Input
Amino acid sequence: MSANFDLRLLIVSITNWQVLSPSSLFETLSDENISFRDERDWTWKGIADVIIPETNTRFGREGCKKLQDALLASGEGLWVSQISVGMPLTDPEIQGVLRYLDQVGAVPGARFIADAVLRQISVLEQHNITTTVEEIAQVQASMKLDLYVEAQIDKKQDQLNTYKEAMNLWDGNPETEPRF
Output
């Protein structure tokens, strides 16, 4: 399924999409109002792969080492071993620890691990679509054209159906022959 087809489905789901500006559609589709929870079992490898948006780099081995050291120093050795085999990270206590360690500077970027498993996302992110206002404008214009074409076909089809009904009822008199 193409991204444009998915984008069309998302646009058509917005009330009054035909009259909204492309920037309004983009804003609506980008609004982070959907709760996302990743309940998978996370391991150190998955944590290392978390992207730090500020630097566009992975949390990496160094980040994992800092996190392990901080957890061990705070008496949370059990978490270190549980993460080694995999565990969900959505628990409020774990979320709080990750955010706290980031906030105090003990483990920079730890909040992004918390965000990777529990955050608000947009409908675009939910459908794994990256787009621009310009692309939305193109798709919206194409959708409006499709609606216009369909309306014109329907109009002519209605005229044809009316003519067909009139012809079927016609008595054969040339003076009363229905016109199309």
